[in-house]
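Summary for the steering committee. The consortium agreed at its last meeting that each partner would contribute one worked example illustrating the joint modelling workflow. Our contribution is presented below. We chose a case with several input lines so that the handling of multiple components could be demonstrated. No manual editing was applied between input and output; the record is shown as generated.
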Amino acid sequence: MTKVTMTVNGKSVSGDVKGNTLLTDFLRDDLRLTGTHVGCDTSQCGACVVHVNGEAVKSCTMFAAEADGAEVKTIEGMANADGSLNVIQQAFQEHHGLQCGFCTPGMVMSAAALLKENPKPSEAEVRDYLEGNICRCTGYHNIVKAIMAASGQDVAAVAAE
Amino acid sequence: MPKDHGIGASPKRREDVRFLTGAGNYTDDINVHGQAYVHFLRSDVAHGKISKIDTSAAEGMPGVVRIFTGADFEGVGGLPCGWQVTDKHGEPMKEPAHPVLCQGKVRHVGDPIAAVVADSLEEARTAAEAIVVDIEELPAVVDMGKALEAGATKVHDDLDDNLCYDWQFGTDTETTDAAFKSAAHVTTLELVNNRLVANPMEPRVAVGDYSRAGDDYTLYTTSQNPHVIRLLMGAFVLGIPEHKLRVVAPDVGGGFGTKIFHYAEEAFCTFAAKACNRPVKWTSTRSEAFMSDAHGRDHVTRIELALDKDNNFIGVRTDTKANMGAYLSTFSSSVPTWLHGTLMAGNYKTPAVQVNVKAVFTNTVPVDAYRGAGRPEATFQLERVIDQAARELGVDPIALRRQNFITQFPYATPVAVEYDTGDYEATMAKMEELMDIPGFAARRAESEKKGMLRGLGVNCFIEACGIAPSNLVGQLGARAGLYDAATVRVNATGSISVMVGAHSHGQGHETVFPQVVAEMLGIDESMIDIVHGDTSKIPFGMGTYGSRSLAVCGSAMVRATEKIINKAKKIAGHLLEASDSDIELKDGMFSVAGTDKSVAWGDVTLAAYVPHNYPLEEIEPGLEETAFYDPANFTYPAGAYACEVEVDPETGKVTIEKFVSADDFGNVVNPMIVEGQVHGGIAQGIGQALLENCAYDENGQLLSASYMDYAMPRADDIPHMAHYVVDHSCQTPCTHNPLGVKGCGEAGAIGSPPTVVNAVIDALHSGGHTHVSHIDMPVSPSRVWAAMNGQ
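What follows is the complete predicted structure of the assembly.
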């Protein structure tokens, strides 16, 4: 067992982990942050995306020990300080960008990472960026719409082009 | 102005807040104190005799609680099939045993041989590696044609062969043959409806718990229908009476049919919880899901369409082989028969329709309902053969469809169903308008300038939803009623809990159902909550599948709410010293007609629970009502879809450039949610048409067992917003349910696959590849390239 310490959603946390404990399992099982989901075992689906030091990472592909000392953000840390939905979360609700909700945490985390590096993405850029996030319910249409709306673009105008 | 509340409005979904903040409560998020974990040792061969299982080395390994094999389940029932199909000779289908853990034989890759329960999942997995299993491998039966050959290896030794049933339905042979003999033209196609895996993003999970104190069980499971699981598992598998078994399906991360069925892992965890005196948890990996979740589709069909000299359809005849896999999953037998044959008339007034289906056992994962279940298979055949007929006859495919539309309702088809209402011309015209059909020639010319082939594909469909009238399905072999139920519990202060048999796993019931009740009572939606997914809290309802939630359970909720209103009017009448027949309810106020006397909703509900001034001699205190609703007929949503594709003649790659759906769902309660359902269905249909294929090799090895090998649609496989419209403005309300709703969950998945394939064939013909009459799905670049090049 190795002792790891990291900052998760702004709080310092520590725990004893095995060398092969995945970051996903540490978040879900040790910290009970069950918003991070596991939808596959080949790093394809993206339901487990979190931010590690500001970068979007599939937490099923990273050992907890590798995140020692890191700044980690999960879906539980995305709301505004007053608990209200942040701009991306609001856009997902506004545009019906989620149905069963299982892929949603990963989608929101990926969307946040996209908008950080590309604040006004084109529709093609959004679709391309979501290559690593699978949704089976929404058909992506409203997810793409939500992300573009969250970037401040007029989605009605985009759809009318 | 769009409405902002009640029926027809699109309020934001209330369930979204928890899902968007990581506060959803999915089954894998549930941990019961002291739980152990199970790992299933699954067969890695498709077919074989188990000659030895030696668990002795594994039993002593760290953390192992107990190891189970088939022998532990000899006194336990097998997994039941819920629908008895009778074959064309009047004989019942073959129904082989489906044990919880393999007994003597393995019959598909993934068949569970042993189960290791241990303190941790890692210890369970490690110990499973120490189990020695000797399997004497047998030839695998994979191809359905070969499975039916004389002398083929049998999947089940106690059956005569691999035929589950040979079913015939619809118009009699003499009449059908006569129609074909008199035909001026007959078009024939041979088609494969590719095997798919439903792939809800949440893998299946089961947590079994047993209480010695009450001698009762709780199963937490990823189910679309907790009461169905309680009934099947309790009564048929484990022999647990219903009052000793609670089944909870909390937030469920998508279903698409594959979470309807009762699975071995659910029965195992429940059984093992008592046997081990510890809660037992199983969480499927995605790889396990590919080899243990019931698959979908997998039909091979020859369809013939007969037309007279004026291009009227005069006969349809089909011959289908339907793959059942190695065992009969819960509703598997009904999919290629009653959910498929009854839809073979489509939107057309063809007088003779005969459907023949052979269901076949193979050494593959069981096949059962997947979004649309039988109806996509029916639509695909019919709409492909109509398109081909139009091409052979040199007529416009839209005009050929239009000419043959059913235009009078109700309409009794030759395949036993009666469409209550519809307007196929309206959806066709709406599709044509939204698609800008006249502009296609110019768009094709633009594509050609880029060196691309552009094709236009259209499709019409009808489906039967709102499953189902119990007396009818009972005659057809269903072993369950298919009503649903709702309890409306009005609390003293006027808030309401509605307990429903339907289960929401993405459909938004928590938002939509209160819209209906709020509209009926004239109170704010926020006063109403939906309770679902827990057999200890909800009335006995049959759950969510077949686009039935609002049409069937919603109708039960309406009936229960009507009972509430009737009783509340009696209470109000007493309070207002008026006859209850003079009481009107509007905007949450009860008033005496023609007067200014009124009492508020909250005054009435309070009186019901604090009955100091109350007609106790006439009515009971309290305000809670239950209704069961058994539909009088199926509902028949229908639509017209179109898409345009570009095919790259160099590579065979297909891109969808434009897509339009025009659906008739009857009345719509929440347009936003309806459109979301259609988007999702279309994406799955595009997946089937272009990407997805569950593939086995000739030895029964599953070749597509992960997202590395099974191509799920991604965001960039779906048409861009500016070229994609889903419309539901054509509305012919259902005539036999109180809301006039028809169901929207499956339409997209039914309507889109033939639309896409029709467009691809059209594109190839425009490029001079006129020898191509069909390409099997998924229409991958290699298949398109091969077809173009005559290979």
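The first helix of chain A runs from residue 23 to 30. Chain A is about 35% helix and 15% strand.
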